[in-house]
Amino acid sequence: xxxxxxxxxxxxxxxxxxxxxxxxxxxxxxxxxxxxxxxxxxxxxxxxxxxxxxxxxxxxxxxxxxxxxxxxxxxxxxxxxxxxxxxxxxxxxxxxxxxxxxxxxxxxxxxxxxxxxxxxxxxxxxxxxxxxxxxxxxxxxxxxxxxxxxxxxxxxxxxxxxxxxxxxxxxxxxxxxxxxxxxxxxxxxxxxxxxxxxxxxxxxxxxxxxxxxxxxxxxxxxxxxxxxxxxxxxxxxxxxxxxxxxxxxxxxxxxxxxxxxxxxxxxxxxxxxxxxxxxxxxxxxxxxxxxxxxxxxxxxxxxxxxxxxxxxxxxxxxx
Length: 319
Hints:
The structure is a single chain. By secondary structure, the chain is α/β, with parallel strands linked by helices. Helix content is 33%, strand content 17%. The chain is built from nine helices and 14 strands. It has a seven-stranded parallel sheet, with helices on both faces. Strands 12-9-14 form a three-stranded mixed sheet. The protein has a two-stranded parallel sheet with strand order 7-10. α3 links the parallel β4 and β5 (124-130). α5 (193-203) packs across α7 (255-266). The longest helix has 22 residues, at 99-120. It is globular.
């Protein structure tokens, strides 16, 4: 993704939500894909702090009026400058790299956040986790009571972070924690993941390379639907204790079907190239999101066809 603050929508636009609705807070990983989309609903003001690891990127955000803490969250000193706020929105999540780096970043950053919440007496945490904590859901839909069984370093790291959060709540170190286990998030400018890998090949006129038979099953979540939920949660008072919600899109689809829909939206021909490698794990990862509908009255609004069209349709004459 772009690290240009304006390109990432960091100046409030027409859709901005009035800041009086939001608590004072720290947003970790604020230049990441999900967090930068959340910031389009927020204007810089006193009491809103962003965490950004890279010093050069952090300075760009400062120039647009944001208060920024910079550095590696696994180093405890980074958060020492944070005053007391009402909430921490913890979006940091290393997805690619060595297993050791993924575990170190995602687990230690969460440990640091919990430590500063205890010392500053920050009462509320919102944590972006992942559906990958469940592993392979096979022919079922995983609900929040489904036993976790992660099959990847990323899923494992997020589950360990969840365990740290649960422990902090149980012993009274923090008062409230909301965990969102999100499906595959996609949308305009998405810089990683299954959608990005397929779309970058198809839109460049290159063969879409697929492991296995292409029948891997997902229920993708459009970025605006996720951001709408997070904005709504931030504007509410929250519940005491630990609450976990699955958050997924409206429809399930295979990788083959997804590639075809991306090509149709982009208006380009495409071909699949099967690598001959085994399909990556998990083969099926689909969620039951009925709890978040029941308790928060949230449901995804954007269909898969509409989301793909928004993300990958080429303007006429640009091909």
